Amino acid sequence: MTGATKNPVEQKDVTKDKESNEKLAEAKKPEKSNKDDKKDQGMSEEDKKLEEDINMLVQRLQESDASLYQPSLESLRSVIRASTTSMTSVPKPLKFMRPHYAIMKEVYEKLQQPNTKALCAELISVLAMCSDEPNDTIIYRMKGTDEPIGDWGHEYVRHLTMGIADEWKKCGEAGDKSNARRNDLLKLVHDIVKHDMRHNAEVEACDLLIEIERLDLLKDYVEEPDHGRVCMYLLSCAPLTPDPDNTNLIRTSMEIYIKFGKHFEAVRAAVMLNDTEAITTIFRNTEDKLLRYQMAILLGRHQIFLDFEAMDFLDSEEGSKLNEFNHNCRLHEYFHALARELDIMEPKTPEQVYKSHLEHTRPFGQPANTDTTRMAMANSIVNGMVNCGYGIDKMMAEVEEANKWFHKSKDYGLLTAAASQGLVWRWDVDTGLTQCDRFLYVDSDFVKAGTYLAIGIISSGIQDPCDPAGALLIDHVHSDRPIMRIGSILGLGLAYANSKRETVMKNEEGGIVFELKKILADTKPSATLEVKGLTGLALGMILVATADNTVAMELLQFLMERSEAELQDTNMRFIALGIALIFLGTQEKSDVFVESLKSLPTPFGQMVSTLVDVCSYAGTGNVLKIQNLLHMCSEHYETVDDKKKKKEDAKNAKKEPTKPDLSSQQAVAVLGIGLIAMGEDIGSQMALRMFGHLIRYGEPVIRRAVPLALSLLSVSNPQLNILETLSKFSHDSDPDTAHNAIFAMGLVGAGTNNARLVAMLRQLASYHHKDQVSLMLVRIAQGMTHLGKGTMTLSPFHSDRQLLCPSALAALFTICFTFLDANNTVLNNKQHYLLYTLVLAIQPRMLVTLIEDDQRPGSLKQISVSVRVGQAVDVVAQAGKPKTITGFQTHTTPVLLSYGERAELATEEYISLTPYLEGLVILKKNPEYEAAKPTDKKK
Question: Which of 674, 728, 790, 816 is most buried by a 10 A CB count?
Fold first, then answer.
């Protein structure tokens, strides 16, 4: 009985629990309504009224009375347009209309009158900004009214801009049916660009047109006050965009500059495109004589040499003057004026550069013997480098002293020593050739050959109307003595690098290119592989960046006719380098040759194909190419030593096909990463990180190439992190890595007199005092650091680092490529004359101001003005007129400009004809300038 009945206390507890649960459920219901009440309480009376009005207007649109539709839609439009909002919140009318988005779409479908339907579509387009279907913004905009696009605010325009690119791509995927759709989109694009250009949103307009590949529309909407910002943005985007979009950006900016009469800036853009015809056209349309002079100076700095006297729209006097400026005929005079201003004309000896008395003493050994042939050769090069361009030194002033100096070397060392006089008299053709003439009648063929090379060095970057270099050297390229051929062929390559004049390029008897091509088919005993290799290199320098298919095909044919054994000769690499230089920076124009070269025997074919490919994209920052090169570097190939170790194990094992040794291709790929990334700052920083991984995990051949690639990223710009890395590898146990790192230190510090680098090199001289090869490279690096006593640079960039000089880049890449196989070239006691290829990159880093001479109209004279020199500031796409330099100091011209510095005029007394104050700058007196009147001092 007791077990069957429930305990009354227990029953009471159950009923209690039931009652409490019911109360809890009831308590939850009012809590929800409380939240709604709080929400209502949080809204102001004005917001409640707005929400009720919007709900009422939407309700009217759902009714059957058609006469209410138009007024209701107009009321909604007025309410939305009248709303104001902050950057972080949605406008309240849109917020209250968001729940009615689907209803508005249904309303649109049932509307019949075109005007009412278009107005409804307009409202849906605006409302779509807050919906989950952002493409509706564009879809309904095109169905809406033609009212100005900016009436709905900037945020609406931005949403349309974001959606158009996606819609445009979808139209492209749709095929032929997309034409009508794209035409509709294009009308919208016109409206957006027009609005952006009128409301200081030029960057957004440019980005939209770049995205849909219709930059040609930009010219119609750019106005004069905005064109400078637009063009600056386009040019800064060019290195970051793939081919062919990058050239489209540059060409568009050139056309905009021409439209507004900015001919100098237009010529800069044409130079970026390497378009000689466009340059000539701009000259034809320029009426200002002084501006033509400034443009000719820019072309001369870029080493594009034109024959202005042959142009029909110029009179003979002006053509002669333009040739004088374009051909750099007076460059040495302006440089000497700078040297006298800085009081550094006094010549220096190599010992004054080395300061070996400051090197650490060696307690357990005698001082290194500096009279070896290697040291004598290094001293010759250093003497030329430190006194480069000054026309005076202490070693070769007298013939007897020079002969003693030369004959400390022997054979090829004599050639290198004699050629060093070309550096001393650099740019001064008249005096330099007179000095060289003293050594053209000596008995030694090596001295004669070195003098021929010196003539080429002196004439490099200078185009004399009499062509003395061609007249003196062309007769010896077919000599019966190989050494004479070597000096004259390389001399011609240096003298006419990047020359686009008809007398050089013509493919008929007497043309320099024609004479050099004949050597390739020459069967004389003197036509050695070394001679033919240098011929290929010389042709590459003369035709650099021209994409000349005829000459490139002849060089390719020459390689294809060689046997596999002949292709293993180091000199064949220079034929391949010649092809690569012809296509330097020409991008897809080299594709046929890249594929054709793969047919050559492995591994030479793969290496040469990669070489041409990386040169084609030099300075472009092309990310896809860098990715491919990194993929090449990730492979592992067995070297000769590895194969010997595994030979015994393989005797008993089955024969397996082994991969060919493509390590030479990997070395070129590493150099290629530096070559491609150097044209763009972000890419350069990324490449530095990549090189860190390659150094740690790469094969030995990759580690040897990394220091050279690092130097390409920072030529004449001794950054601390790069110097520390190179210093570490200059002590490497692998001698090849150490040699490359030492030379790379010289390239990085060239012409800077950097105190930290000077101390590092002095310490290296003590460290390597027993190794003559390393010590020789340390001395050469010291000479490069003191290049021109610290007044010169090897950097291929100029004109505010926006122009990349192809011949300077060719020089830097040539010497780095040579060091990939240094033991068989530069360091083999024969081909150290290849170091002189660097002369193409040597330029004074000066600012000299010129003004028209009143006494001799049409002539220019030097003038000293005040300029502010400071660190350059990136002002691309910044609003207003931002400051272009920071941390400036005021100097009087002529002045030296360091890496990353920019100059501007300190007063408004003169107007510059170029916005970039570098090199030779022509000034005009400002007609609106009024000198400040001196105020009377209070007594």
Answer: 674
